[in-house]
Specification:
- α1 packs across α2 and α3 runs parallel beside α5.
- The chain has a domain of 73 residues.
- It is globular.
- Helices cover 75% and strands 0% of the residues.
- The termini are far apart.
- The chain has 229 residues and is mostly helical.
Length: 229
């Protein structure tokens, strides 16, 4: 279990570093993740789940680090990703779905990009990886049978109903008597969280820092220089 934890954190660090380009930010992100109260026990409840999340993060790290490879090196990486995806599909179906969602989203975003700097070979590789990530779990479920609806369906349904209840301010049996917040405030909070997550995912805040002049003033004042252009 300790080896899996170490491998997981190492792969998570490499994944963050490939995205941010900063070892310091990657280390801070890993420390923030390790500070979660469920870090020690949650992934250790089931051995297959512990292996599944490690394989999932390894796939993310390898895919993110291979974006600039070409030719035979790219084919080798595709073979490694395919092997990891096959291992993940037979290990933990839920982690395989997370990988399919992530790689499928990456493939869709690359297909929608207007920037022509990305080579056609890289686009094909990203699309092939996304299709493989989606197809392998489905093929494995088709071969072994689909048991998700029996135990995962009620959990998703209950969570969706609870989320709708919190948004609309509906009362439930486990409320402690605190007055519900207005619907507009709830929607504003959710929108703010989504915008913050979108800004972090697309590098918007990092672009603000790089767009400011090197001789700009310290603190929050460079944002004024950027917006004034």
């Amino acid at each position: 279990m300790a080896v899996l934890k170490g491998t997981f954190i190492g792969a998570l660090f490499l994944f963050f570093e490939s995205i941010t380009g900063s070892p310091r930010i990657s280390a801070i992100a890993c420390l923030a993740y390790m500070g979660c109260s469920t870090f020690v026990l949650f992934e250790s409840m089931f051995s297959y789940e512990s292996l599944g999340i490690v394989l999932c993060v390894l796939i993310f790290a390898v895919e993110a680090a291979s974006k600039d490879l070409v030719g035979r090196e790219r084919l080798k990486v595709l073979g490694l990703i395919a092997l990891l995806l096959m291992s993940l599909s037979v290990t933990h179906h839920l982690s395989a779905f997370y990988a399919a969602i992530y790689l499928g989203a990456v493939a869709c975003l690359e297909a929608l990009r207007r920037d022509a700097s990305m080579r056609s070979e890289a686009r094909i590789a990203v699309g092939f990886t996304g299709m493989l990530a989606i197809a392998l779990p489905l093929l494995w479920m088709e071969a072994r049978g689909n048991h998700l609806a029996g135990y995962l369906g009620p959990v998703v349904e209950t969570g969706f109903k609870t989320l709708l209840g919190k948004i609309t301010g509906a009362l439930n049996s486990d409320q402690l008597g605190a007055p519900p917040q207005p619907l507009a405030m709830r929607l504003t909070t959710l929108l703010a969280i989504l915008l913050l997550a979108l800004g972090l995912a697309t590098g918007f805040f990092r672009s603000l820092a790089t767009a400011a002049r090197s001789d700009a003033r310290a603190g929050w004042l460079p944002i004024q220089d950027v917006l004034g252009r």
